[in-house]
Amino acid sequence: MNQQMNTSEPLNVRTMADYQSKGEVPEILFWVGCSGSFDDRSKKITKAIVRILNHVGMKFAVLGMEETCTGDPAKRAGNEFLFQMQAMNAITVMNAYSVKKIVTGCPHCFNTIKNEYPALGGDYEVIHHTQLVQQLLDSGKLKVTGGAFKGKKITFHDPCYLGRGNDVYEAPREIIQKLDAELAEMKRSRSKGFCCGAGGAQMFKDAEKGNKEVNIERSEEALALNPEIIATGCPFCMTMMTDGVKHFNKEQQTKVMDIAELIAQANEL
Amino acid sequence: MGIQNILFIAVLLGAAGLFTVNIRKVRRNILLGNDLNRNDKTGERWRTMCMVALGQSKMLTRPIPAILHLFVYVGFVLINIEVVEMLVDGSFGTHRFLSFLGPFYNFLISFFEVLAFLVTIGCIIFLIRRNIIRLKRFISKDLDGWPRTDANIILCTEILLMTALFLMNAADQTLQARGISHYLKAGTFPISSHLVPLLSGISEAGLIGLERTCWWFHMIGILFFLNYLVVSKHFHILLAFPNVFYSNLDPKGQFTNLASVTTEVKAMLDPSFVPPPTDPAKPHRFGAKDVSDLNWKQLLDAYTCTECGRCTSSCPANQTGKLLSPRKIMMDTRDRLTEYGKNIDQNGTFKDDGKSLSGDYISAEELWACTSCNACVQECPVNIDPLSIIIDLRRYLVMEQSAAPTGLNLMFTNIENNGAPWQFSPADRLNWANEN
Q1: ipTM of this predicted complex?
Q2: How many CB pairs under 8 A join A and B?
Q3: Which residues in chain B are contacts of A73 at CB distance < 8 A?
Q4: How far is B349 from chain A (nearest CA, A)?
């Protein structure tokens, strides 16, 4: 992309502890997630989400150093002990802050907190960042300005834990369409979407023996559309698809971007 | 009532008795599974059953097999109305006892003939798809041996049953035309009427013999089929309905929280926590080693699977050449459950045979190939959930055997020590906020 994000303005990020010490209550907790906190590429997605929240003037907080892994990869790998330890610790922290509403930057955190925490004592309203962006666009608080993506061909790769896992298919697509971009669908999309290969804790282990890597299969399918952008909504899909695009030496023609980055860039945030 | 009727009633009672015995064994086997409450949300359950099982809504994503399957399915359900008539005729010596319905009866019979014709066409095309076109999901090694034979037996039996029905009707209408007393004028026969010219040279006794043979063939065939279901993938024609009724209605991404683990974790975090009493009769195990560690719905899933392979053909691991096949997970679960049940039949209670679902049937390599993407669950036309079995088997490997792959053990250690799956310091978690 020619357009660079306006990074001169510092990010306005406050922690839950900070809000509490000033006797204030944020509107929403932004659960960043481990990838969004530590992975260099994913941190850009995190910052794009923060710029959007700053832009619309939403009072949000992060847990900062009090945030830990939700336990998702441990649970998918079969380590239920570790998962529940993580979950109960996270729930203790969030309940102590009387958290009501959470937005996550990762479909895995989204799924885990939304679906698996309630039975362990953590009941919150949880949305994924693509849903928040859609709500902001629908309510008019956020407008898409500038035609940075006008007419560009964008394909959307459905993250499994957003799509099939929780039936969120339309929010990211409606956002892409609001950018006046050309939404090109892969044959395997929505409920038929093909995994990037990272889920089920595969991200953290070597792939089992096979004749192809899952992310290569999926990237090949996306690249067959010759898109300018492969959009997604998951930091793990981001890693897998970026690697896949590199594998085919297409990183000059095709960028892999998160929905939040599209919106932030379109608005020159 | 003649000797034929007495014979028929005996055959009918024998087949029904055998079926009852076998169904009770299947029920016992399913109930070997752990408890699970699926009696909530009955309204939503009925709606789901109407849509997915009765209405076949999930078949529609693949239109060609959907239409062919619809022929066979509708044919199977409606032709059974005619079977009711045949049961009564066979038991009481009547002939086409519903013919008093007059024109409506004629409509019914012609309607059934058209359906039977569509069933035949459907089954022939299904045979071609399996054996001549050899679609990928039907030639995979999952189906080597008995499963492939099973599929062909089912299709051939259905074709034979329909052929017998047509021949019987052709003989019947020839006898009707010749004014033979027992064969009263009833029914219109849009399909079998084309077979009538072939029978013109046959004597009255020959025709009666043909009609009776076909009638007996059809009835014994159906009763054979009923009992065959229990040992066949074709069981889905009955089990699809309860299986969809008891579907998981939670979001697919949501995995169960193991209650036994919750107890342990609570006790660890809070020394004053008093754990609830456990059932000493049921051995306490984290995850599933064998079929008896699964829940009853997972075992019902296994009996319901008709091995269509939609799950496997959408599985990202399988499609990239890995060993995992969700269909094989279901077939293995059923095979082991059948073996487990036979063990109980022989020994009264289950006697350790040194085997288990984990390891002897499903290898660790298969389990570790899963990306938990839920494509298999999404694809299944009867809402089977192979993923939940995969996860329960993984839980056993990790929590009871400490047999996770190296990369995952490292990830666990990182989460325990740093609160993140990678080796980063928790103190650096907010560094991004100050970076440009």
Answers
A1: 0.95
A2: 216
A3: 411, 415, 421
A4: 30
